[in-house]
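tool_call: predict_structure(chain=1)
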Amino acid sequence: MTVDPPRSLTFRLDALVLVCKACGKRDSGPRDAKPKQVAQQLKRSAKDAHMKTRVVMTSCLGLCPKRATAVVTVAGAAEVGVPAQFAIESLDQVPAALAGISSAQT
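tool_result:
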């Protein structure tokens, strides 16, 4: 009996963004960029940039930056690329992180 290898799927999004919600609960967590605010800002910025982006709040990602929220992105393509990791300390850094996602696609 032979087993067929798993088939690859196409990634229909421009990016998948994981935001660690546990970062907001730590004592050394973010002061300015709470995880929920970061997720909302990422969604707004992606919509303004006309990007199909899925933003997902996750449990602890294990990155644990001091005074920041951990964000991991995977740029979409036929093949899933290498994830990029960001430590967002203020909401002003969100558009730059989103620009990093779109530049990774080209």
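agent: Residues 86 and 97 are 7 Å apart (CA to CA). Proceeding to next step.
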